[in-house]
Amino acid sequence: MRIIAGDYRGQRLKAVPGINTRPTADKIKGAIFNVLREKVVDAKVLDMFSGTGNLALEALSRGAKEAILIEKSRIAQRVIQENLEHLGVQNAKLMEMDAFDYLARHQEEIFDLIFIDPPYHLGLAEKSLKYLLDPCRLTYSGVIIVETAKDENLTNVAPFEIRKTGEYGDTKIWYLQRID
């Protein structure tokens, strides 16, 4: 796993040991950032279920202005911290807590890009969208990027709208924007 483009291009990232964390593969990450393109520059990023920090770190490498990474696993937190230190990242904040607790406690936060990459088949993607609603945490031109298993569906996404999807092996990527 590595940073694909930008200031940290080519830098290797540490992975969380074991099989409980599933980092976004470089091929999928490349596809995500090819869709996002200029939306990354100067973006405020939220990376829920951060795992290794892979997605937020790629966004920062490509010009995002700041990122909040949320992770409740102590092992994953250590890996994220090591990755932040290895890259010398100063404009990221690791929140060592449950993603839903963070959203409940920080209702004033609004983001340009929100990455949601929870464990598969637990309903956490749709639950995350509900937590992002009241108040809405996405800017009007912002994008939510959700990663699910290919056989999972997002059915209740209003007031967000699915603008695009992509399938890569057993993974499905959803791109959502506000419709209000």
Automatic annotation (TrEMBL):
The keyword Transferase applies. Signal peptide: none annotated. It comes from the Bacteria. It holds the Pfam family Cons_hypoth95. CDD domains: AdoMet_MTases. Keywords: Methyltransferase, Transferase. This is RNA methyltransferase, RsmD family. One of its GO terms (molecular function) is nucleic acid binding. Gene3D superfamilies: Vaccinia Virus protein VP39. Coiled coil: none annotated. InterPro entries: DNA_methylase_N6_adenine_CS (IPR002052), RNA_MeTrfase_RsmD (IPR004398), SAM-dependent_MTases_sf (IPR029063). It comes from Desulfitobacterium dichloroeliminans (strain LMG P-21439 / DCA1). The keyword Ribonucleoprotein does not apply. GO terms for biological process: rRNA methylation.
